[in-house]
């Protein structure tokens, strides 16, 4: 891999991030989180784009300082073109275009979902990168899909959610439990103190590799409404067990389809990516299948699971080697196929 130095910029949702990569080694990976969304129980697009405007220059400057890199050493600029919130993406795209023009360096557009998967090829993401072909369960607040990865830029979605994403289900169920946003990490923490067998919730019955998570959300809601009539303090009295039971159900749904795909396609190289790949129960389920099914598993470092610019820089580096540059007339897009 070349020693080119690339600045990556990520602004698809509510995290403003910038990273510097040399080869496949990350020199800096800086992110500014937007705490304001907690007050609203979810990301408010207009507030997100305003915060990106405030954060992007300080974040980029900090990434350069930490990497001890001058602007004139940058070989190219990679940025998230989509998918994501259009207002947020516009901030990152406009900044990347302006900086590339002022430095007279190539501009490289990156697909956010592709970046989650290719984060596995960052030098310190795993002890070893996955071998092609591999399956990647890409699971976050906005997306849940099984991707067959044949090569760096040859990917096929073989299964996806037909309604809610898994991370979205965690957040919506967390709202029912009156937990703060984002609820996924809170449910994961509380589940460690609970009994995962305490309560049973419905699982979808889909034939192919597709997912559905709206059913479990409805199942939990009706169950809670029924129990609260008998005991108004039911949630507080059983919070840890509720979290453990919900988490167990969601992870079982995720793993059942992944196991089915791995078996039917006869693939033993299996990876996870995206924000929900930080979930401890999902990581344990992957470890269990490593032993039970003989999988070679790839679980990225925590800092490369959530939205981050390191993964954007990694894809930009791979595209830079191939001479795949972007015209300055490019524009951000909320929908961007894998």
Automatic annotation (TrEMBL):
Binding, substrate: 138-142, 171, 184, 188, 279
EC numbers for this chain: 2.3.1.234
Keywords: Acyltransferase, Cytoplasm, Iron, Metal-binding, Transferase, tRNA processing
Keyword field contains Acetylation: no
UniProt-recorded name of the protein: tRNA N6-adenosine threonylcarbamoyltransferase
Entry GO terms, CC: cytoplasm
Family to which this protein belongs: Belongs to the KAE1 / TsaD family.
Residues that bind Fe cation: 112, 116, 307
Protein origin, superkingdom: Bacteria
Originating species: Chryseobacterium limigenitum
Entry-linked Gene3D superfamilies: 3.30.420.40
Pfam families, per the entry: TsaD (PF00814)
Annotated catalysed reactions: L-threonylcarbamoyladenylate + adenosine(37) in tRNA = N(6)-L-threonylcarbamoyladenosine(37) in tRNA + AMP + H(+)
Cofactor: Fe(2+)
An example molecular function term from Gene Ontology annotations: iron ion binding
Residues of the Gcp-like domain: 26-313
Keyword match tRNA processing: yes
Residue runs in coiled coils: none
The record's free-text note on cofactor binding: Binds 1 Fe(2+) ion per subunit.
Root EC class: transferase
InterPro entries named among the record's database cross-references: ATPase_NBD, Gcp-like_dom, KAE1/TsaD, Peptidase_M22_CS, TsaD
Gene Ontology biological process terms, A to Z: tRNA threonylcarbamoyladenosine modification
